[in-house]
Design brief:
The structure holds two protein chains of two kinds.
Chain A lengths: L3 E3 L2 E5 L4 E7 L6 E7 L5 E8 L4 E4 L2 E6 L4 E6 L8 E8 L6 E3 L3 E6 L1
Parallel strand pairs in A: 2-11
Antiparallel strand pairs in A: 1-3, 3-8, 4-5, 4-9, 6-7, 7-8, 9-10, 9-11
Chain B lengths: L3 E4 L2 E4 L4 E8 L5 E7 L6 E7 L2 E5 L6 E7 L2 E7 L7 E9 L2 E4 L3 E5 L1
Parallel strand pairs in B: 2-11
Antiparallel strand pairs in B: 1-3, 3-8, 4-5, 4-9, 5-6, 7-8, 9-10, 9-11
The chains are: A mainly beta, B mainly beta.
Chain lengths: ~110, ~110
């Protein structure tokens, strides 16, 4: 089946790196995604990684994919207060039109 | 234009009302989506339109009725809703490997 799991909360100090982890079950997923949702807002696609890659970097964001362990992580360098949000890991579903979301990780930043 | 817009931003309705949510995109995407999101939960897919035809209906109750008048517009008609239907309703558009979300309509059913 299709299932995506992630921890519910993460608290980091401003300026430190944040690492949000995710595991997924469908090894046939072609794309894996990270979305960000700020309070009261819609979802913003942060980045995605193609399944034949093991790393993707985009400015402060680094995505690591371990396909053998079906583990995806998002690292945010130099975490700022504006990074406070819920981060959803997602995989492409069995139908190409579907995205399967994890439960979301709430990232909070402490001074 | 690289955004998905949704109106209204907030909607309060009674259980006997009929209302509609609207979504618009001008990115040329041929797939459009409706999601429902309850507080502290991930979005749940409701409907997918592909090339203006309904391609996925995730067993959504008939009190929700989607409509895709053209490739840029997506509506969700609401009738006889229940209080448990109160949620954030998100529209998205996209191509195969990317979905872009609107800001959502926060719906409260009294």
């Amino acid at each position: 089946g299709e299932d995506v799991e992630q921890s519910l909360f993460l608290s980091v100090r401003e300026g430190d790196s944040s690492v949000i982890n995710c595991t997924y079950t469908d090894s046939s997923s072609t794309y894996l995604y990270w979305y960000k949702q700020e309070p009261g807002a819609g979802l913003q696609l942060l980045t995605y990684i193609f399944s034949n890659m093991d790393m993707k970097q985009d400015q402060r964001l680094t995505v690591l994919l371990n396909k053998k362990d079906k583990h995806l992580s998002l690292r945010i360098a130099d975490t700022q207060t504006g990074d406070s949000a819920i981060y959803f890991c997602a995989e492409e579903g069995s139908s190409a039109s579907k995205i399967i979301f994890g439960s979301g990780t709430r990232l909070s930043i402490r001074p | 234009d690289t955004e998905v817009t949704q109106t209204p931003k907030h909607l309060v309705m009674g259980m006997t009302n009929k209302k509609s949510l609207k979504c618009e995109q001008h990115m040329g995407h041929r797939a459009m989506y409706w999601y429902k999101q309850k507080a502290k939960k991930p979005p749940e897919l409701m409907f997918v339109y592909s090339y203006e035809k309904l391609s996925i209906n995730e067993s959504v109750p008939s009190r929700f009725s989607p409509e895709c008048p053209n490739s840029s517009l997506l509506n969700l008609h609401l009738h006889a809703l229940q209080p448990e239907d109160s949620a954030l309703y998100l529209c998205a558009s996209g191509a195969r490997n990317e979905q872009f979300f609107g800001p959502g309509t926060r719906l409260t059913v009294l």
